[in-house]
């Protein structure tokens, strides 16, 4: 598979390393800001002709990048977040044989964790005595809060626990209402990523936790997603589509 990488931060570098170790070719590395010697171009047009582009760039450039990929007919795996408010516009771009897959987290382990959290939420829905909340911890340099993954977990819970009507972020003043789902965030040291679903009653407590040991799981998942996308004829896909097919005999 001939890959182009757009965005050459820590994630892009890890994708580059793993792509080569898995027998793929990296034909183009694009980053308008990086001075790394591995960057081959500042122009998005350089991805033309590759089999698939993996984009971990920035929210400010992501939509224009997607426009370019679809115009060139290049399949795209988008790990950049912060553009989902424009998803309806992107759907209109993905026509014919164009293929695009997006996710806030490409870790296969996180995808499985989301399935577990979703099932747990559906069980808790019938048990009013149990409350549920989300906590997440990341390194001090993480730009967003809460994490995109925490938001994905919240979406699963909100879709399955009828009594939860609103997501509240951080530590608001006053009580957390019964209909509110809290996401608490902690930024600490060099933590790669910890996400927990906390379920609690007066009698007992249940905690579901996913702990990332490094960025490798995210990068490897993006490469596996690109391999999966190569076999698709056209369409807009999410990580759910990929993991559902991967686990089709188990769910």
Description:
There is one protein chain. The chain has a 6-stranded parallel sheet, sandwiched between helices. It starts with a strand and ends in a 5-residue tail after the last helix. Helices cover 34% and strands 24% of the residues. With 251 residues, it is α/β, with parallel strands linked by helices. The model has no long low-confidence stretch (mean pLDDT 94). The chain has 7 helices and 11 strands. It is elongated and about 60 Å long.
Percentage of residues in strands: 15-25%
State the share of residues found in helices, binned by percent: 25-40%
Q: How do the strands of the widest beta sheet line up side by side? A: 2-1-3-4-5-11
Mind telling me the C-alpha Rg? 19 Å
Q: Low-confidence parts, pLDDT < 50 over ≥5 residues?
A: none
Gross morphology is elongated
Oligomeric organization of the protein chains? single chain
> How many helical stretches?
7
| Major sheet summary line | 6 strands, parallel
Distance between the termini: 30 Å
Q: Count of DSSP E strands?
A: 11
| Topology as a string of helices (H) and strands (E) | EHEEHEHEHEHEEEEHEH
Average pLDDT number: 94
Which structural category do the helix and sheet elements fall into? alpha/beta
């Amino acid at each position: 598979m001939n890959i182009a990488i757009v965005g050459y931060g820590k994630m892009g570098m890890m994708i580059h390393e793993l792509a080569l170790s898995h027998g793929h070719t990296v034909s183009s590395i694009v980053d308008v800001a990086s001075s790394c010697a591995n960057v081959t171009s500042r122009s998005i047009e350089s991805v033309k002709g590759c089999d698939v582009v993996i984009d971990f760039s920035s929210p400010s450039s992501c939509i224009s990048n997607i426009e370019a990929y679809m115009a060139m007919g290049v399949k795209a795996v988008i790990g950049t977040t912060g553009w989902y408010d424009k998803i309806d516009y992107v759907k209109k771009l993905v026509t014919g044989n164009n293929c695009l897959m997006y996710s806030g987290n490409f870790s296969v382990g996180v995808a499985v964790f989301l399935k577990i959290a979703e099932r747990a939420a559906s069980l808790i829905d019938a048990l009013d005595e149990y409350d549920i909340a989300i906590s997440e911890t990341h390194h001090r340099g993480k730009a967003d809060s809460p994490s995109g993954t925490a938001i994905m977990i919240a979406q699963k819970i909100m879709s399955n626990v009828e009594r939860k009507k609103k997501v509240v972020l951080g530590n608001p003043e006053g009580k957390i209402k019964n209909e509110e789902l809290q996401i608490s965030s902690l930024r600490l040291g060099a933590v790669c990523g910890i996400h927990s679903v906390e379920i609690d009653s007066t009698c007992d407590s249940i905690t579901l936790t996913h702990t990332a040991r490094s960025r490798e799981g995210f990068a490897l998942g993006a490469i596996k997603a690109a391999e999966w996308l190569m076999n698709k004829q056209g369409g807009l896909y999410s990580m759910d589509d990929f993991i559902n097919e991967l686990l089709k005999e188990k769910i």
